[in-house]
Amino acid sequence: MTNLLLFVFLSIFLTFGNAQELSSLIRNTNLGRIDPVTDKKILNAVVRANPNLNEYPDLRGTSSQGLLYVSVKYQDNRHAIIGVISGPSPYSGYVEVTFNGGPLPTSPSSPLHQGSGKLNLSRFTELNRNLGLPRDQRDPQKIIQAFMTKNPRLPTGLGSFLEVGKITRTSAYLYVKQPNFQYEGDVYVSL
Fold it and tell me: Which residues does 88 contact at the CB level (< 8 Å), separation at least 6?
């Protein structure tokens, strides 16, 4: 909800004349499968799901441009908010879209990077935290390897920046080594 309010706040702009609400144009918000999740693929899916957008060439742009005047803010790999970019525009507002997403976005504009601009491990909502490791394979390297194997949607380079903190009989604490310019965050996993 905080992301939504922040996005709405950032989307407020001055408009001269009557602005058309995006929600009145983008009525079909279930976009189906998108894999991998990118801004362009989401915007193209919005156009496919809402053929009425062809009647608004100034919003639609060309096929290579996708939708003009709007930006995408990821909520997770199943939800995004399409909102009007700040500045003069004949459109206003935002609309939340849903989809069956593939790999999570890893661009600095995604909510997984909020704040510092780093990809934050703590913000991944669909992590497989149950590693199922036998007791004799619970050293730090095997825990990291199992975590990365169980979560193939994570960037492959992340594993080399992970460290294991406290290991108990049933769980372990993984965190990103700092200083690090790409990644941050932590997660508890079940062994």
Answer: 13, 14, 15, 16
